[in-house]
Specification:
4-stranded parallel sheet, 6 helices, single chain, Rossmann fold, alpha/beta
Length: 127
């Protein structure tokens, strides 16, 4: 049985990548059963993150349709339980992330939407 839910966020240099990373980090701090997986370190063969992704259920938090977190983790033989498309999610809520390297008030709203959606997904896959 899986002990943790692992979140792997977009690391792209776009505003959706920034709000994805903030959301994933916040949830990993707020919940004992959530860990984050650094997609860049995984791509660089950092064993800690690769093992974490292989041994637990993973939610990929993708900034766009390219699904980089999923693509990278699949090359490391990790299975993705769910792919969240942040671009589509924010569009459904009539929001758009704005800042690339600093999060602003609007981006905090975006991060909260993403966090709430991740928690819903987490609850679904744990059942």
């Amino acid at each position: 049985m899986h002990e943790k839910i692992v979140l792997c966020a977009c690391s792209g240099m776009n505003p959706r990548g920034e709000v994805s990373r903030v959301s994933v980090y916040d949830l990993s701090v707020e919940h004992d059963d959530i860990e984050y997986c650094c997609v860049v370190a995984s791509g660089g063969n950092f064993k800690k993150f690769i093992d974490l992704a292989r041994k637990n259920k993973v939610i990929a938090v993708n900034g766009c349709e390219n699904c980089c977190p999923e693509t990278i983790l699949k090359t490391k033989d990790a299975t993705i339980e769910y792919n969240l498309n942040v671009k589509q999610l924010l569009k459904e809520h009539d929001l758009k992330a704005e800042c690339t390297v600093r999060i602003n008030e609007n981006d905090e709203k975006c991060a909260n939407i993403i966090k709430n959606e991740i928690l819903k997904i987490k609850n679904e896959i744990e059942q």
